[in-house]
Design goal:
single chain; 209 residues; mainly alpha
Length: 209
């Protein structure tokens, strides 16, 4: 592809991430489930808040992977990032669909989340492939813990959301392991702590807005 072609693709990805309309390459987990009627108003609001947080996480994931791909030195690493990004796009579409089913909305701050994550991904990528991959691995490790927490918090009758989150968790584990196997290094503890603090801010805000 020419640089212009790649720029158009990246812009389209950013637009779908921020505005909506992401396309999934895999069917939505538990697509036949019809649990909408079994949730009361409070449960629906809580489930929507959690799925909005998950959607924001996928918006950030798209920004991170897209920016890191742009500066990856090794073509094989770029290909690995592309594969993970496609599966993250599935997650984005699944969460968006579920939010619509719950009569809710995605975060109004998505442009901010995408821009900030894109900048962070560029910095990680410019530091070198091993650090970029280490950043991916640590991010996925934290996301895995966050998704496990959501499986505990989602209404027990919301099998639709739970199936989506569980498949996302499985994919995130694979992405993190792939990054480590490709040469990712363990990030210094202070950086891990900063990432946890930023994640806490994002999840707290996205649940409501």
């Amino acid at each position: 592809m020419t640089p212009i072609d790649r720029l158009i693709i990246e812009f389209d990805t950013a637009l779908r991430s921020v505005v909506g309309g992401a396309n999934a390459s895999r069917p939505t987990p538990d697509a036949q489930s019809t649990t909408k009627h079994s949730l009361d108003a409070a449960e629906r609001k809580h489930a929507a808040g959690l799925m909005r947080v998950n959607h924001v996480g996928e918006v950030c994931a798209q920004a991170l992977y897209q920016s890191q791909k742009l500066v990856a030195r090794d073509p094989q690493i770029r290909e690995m990032l592309e594969h993970s990004a496609q599966e993250e796009m599935d997650h984005l579409a699944w969460c968006e669909t579920r939010l619509k089913e719950l009569d809710s909305h995605t975060s109004y701050l998505n442009p901010f989340w995408y821009a900030g994550s894109f900048a962070i991904g560029l910095l990680a990528g410019l530091a070198g492939d091993k650090w970029s991959l280490g950043f991916v691995a640590e991010t996925e490790k934290q996301v895995e813990a966050h998704l496990e927490n959501h499986l505990d918090k989602l209404p027990i009758d919301d099998q639709r959301s739970r199936a989506i989150v569980d498949q996302m968790r499985i994919d995130e584990i694979e992405h993190g392991q792939a990054a480590l196997h490709a040469g990712g290094v363990t990030l210094p503890e202070p950086i891990q702590k900063i990432m946890q603090a930023v994640s806490k801010l994002m999840t707290t805000t996205a649940y409501k807005i």
